[in-house]
Amino acid sequence: MLPYVSEDAAIYLLPWMQEYRNHSAEALGGEFSNYNFPYLFLMYTASLLPIEPLYAIKTVSLIGDILLALSMAHLVRRYRPSGLEPATAAVVTLFIPTVLLNAAMWGQCDSFYAAFLLLSLSYLLRNDARRAWLFWAVALAFKLQSVFFLPALVLVSLRNRVSIISPVFAMGIWAALSLPPILFGRSLLSTLGIYLKQTGEDRLVAGAANIYEWFPGVTAEAGRIPALIACSVALSGIALAYWHAPDSPESRILLALCVLAVCPFLLPQMHDRYFFAAEVLSLVLIRNSSLRWVPVIFASTGLAVYVLYFSGNRYLWPLLIASAIQALAVLLLIRELMKKRSAMKQGLFPVIR
Fold it and tell me: Which of 47, 164, 274, 315 has the greatest CB tally within 10 Å of its CB?
């Protein structure tokens, strides 16, 4: 897997690495990349290694995998799902198909943002809002997809009357991690516009196994607003279900999984890898009798999407099947959260004050 050169590596990552080898730290102020500073700084550091550029890129990605495994162990140590030990969870995380392929074969860095999201959730379960917001800010500095977790973070914070200082502090952390390119000569407008460049997709769906695979003739321009409305409605329903469910660790885990799955399933212009965080977090449900099929479904559909990418297969029907199965997992998660709401109404759970 390591010698494989993906399309992303050939078009983007390898030229970026060459920029750092040609111009050293000066390239940190360049405008050749649409990734944010934390990852680019790691890439620059890797460029100093006396190894082939491709292996330098994948070294960074594999470090992200290790961090992801440690973060999963940290979460499981707090959450303690039945039958899952922290060390076991860490090892299994490394061998989730999409985790294994994302770094070692694709050369991508999704493990970094997912690792910090897991740490954010772990501290959210500990009622440590400041650290939860801090690690979310670090995740956001790595990848824009971290916004998928924001509804869960906001809801738990509102329900527990968390001080506004925590999100303000988080934005300060994000700025400290994102703005250093200005010190190397990049303009403020260009630095802040990195995430806007990532949303410039002209297709309604860009490889993700989501509902819009069933509407291949709809452009991003035509479908963007209806898609945003659909996602907003779904998130509102999830928020209502959580608000009236017991505010337990189980409810917070379900809330996080629901938003991490619903956002890439219903938002427009989603790419192949955008279910990554949901796929990883769903591992904590592997021994849950009601939801044990959810991590299996996510792993299977994620693997299918990756295989289609690597094989250059652009046929529609495999993604249609994957999106239909993906919908089942999303519905199972939402139903379970709704069941907790119903159980609380019937007095089966104590109200947590």
Answer: 274
